[in-house]
């Protein structure tokens, strides 16, 4: 899913990012963080570009989130637009929402 990364910028690409409801939910969550500078998405290509302040979200702060993101990745792999899959991903995004509010 991660196609490029360096501190302050990450690009993700996956079929799940072609689902408008999932993308809109994720972007809403990310944009509430002061650390996020910019978020762009392209529904047609399934791409999301996230630019953030690496001083506000250091790698050390992200490391504990690895298990969460691995679980989310598993749920997103092979996403085909199925409503059951969509709901599971939206539930994980709700968990992420709670995490972002504590940053």
Structure, explained:
This protein is an alpha+beta fold. It contains four helices and four strands. Strands 1-2-4-3 form a four-stranded antiparallel beta sheet, with helices on one face. Strand 3 (36-42) and strand 4 form a beta hairpin.
Largest sheet entry: 4 strands, antiparallel
Structural class: alpha+beta
- The averaged pLDDT comes out at 88
Q: In angstroms, what is the radius of gyration?
A: 13 Å
Instruction: Quickly count the helices.
Output: 4
Assign a percent range to the helix content: 40-55%
Oligomer: single chain
Features:
22% strand, 103 residues, 4-stranded antiparallel β-sheet, 4 helices, alpha+beta
List the topology elements.
Blueprint: E1 2-6, E2 9-13, H1 20-31, E3 36-42, E4 47-52, H2 59-62, H3 66-76, H4 83-100
Antiparallel strand pairs: 1-2, 2-4, 3-4
Helix pairs in contact: 1-4, 3-4
């Amino acid at each position: 899913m991660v196609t490029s990364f360096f501190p302050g910028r990450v690009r993700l690409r996956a079929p799940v990012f072609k689902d408008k409801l999932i993308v809109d939910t994720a972007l809403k969550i990310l944009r509430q963080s002061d650390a996020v500078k910019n978020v762009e998405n392209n529904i047609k290509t399934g791409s999301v570009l996230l630019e953030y302040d690496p001083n506000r979200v250091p790698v050390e702060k992200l490391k504990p989130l690895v298990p969460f993101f691995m679980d989310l990745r598993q749920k997103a792999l092979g996403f085909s637009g199925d409503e059951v899959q969509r709901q599971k991903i939206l539930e994980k995004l709700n968990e992420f929402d709670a995490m972002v509010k504590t940053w």
